[in-house]
Amino acid sequence: xxxxxxxxxxxxxxxxxxxxxxxxxxxxxxxxxxxxxxxxxxxxxxxxxxxxxxxxxxxxxxxxxxxxxxxxxxxxxxxxxxxxxxxxxxxxxxxxxxxxxxxxxxxxxxxxxxxxxxxxxxxxxxxx
Length: 128
What we know:
Helix content: over 70%
Largest sheet: none
Number of domains: 1
Low-confidence stretches: none
Distance between the termini: 55 Å
Mean pLDDT: 91
Radius of gyration: 18 Å
Number of helices: 3
Shape: elongated
Strand content: under 5%
């Protein structure tokens, strides 16, 4: 990691962080998708969708929190000026919203498209 001392360096770091936030959002979706597909159906009164929903929520929270902590504790330590550090703190909050919002948005789209799959069952049972 390089030290950030000028405004162009900070802007480059912000751009990289936004891109990494989008990549982390996709990674969160993929992990949640894999976990949902590993949980087996239960016979009879199937309530396995609750386990999938809990797994999905845990993936989103841990993934977003992990990325935020990484930026807050590790990356921001390389920013020398206090004003730049505050600008990066704002960037970090925006990236938190990108990771949570992006992973939930992609997941909801896939859940609605594949409604009768294990991942789609996270939304709950369909009304008949």
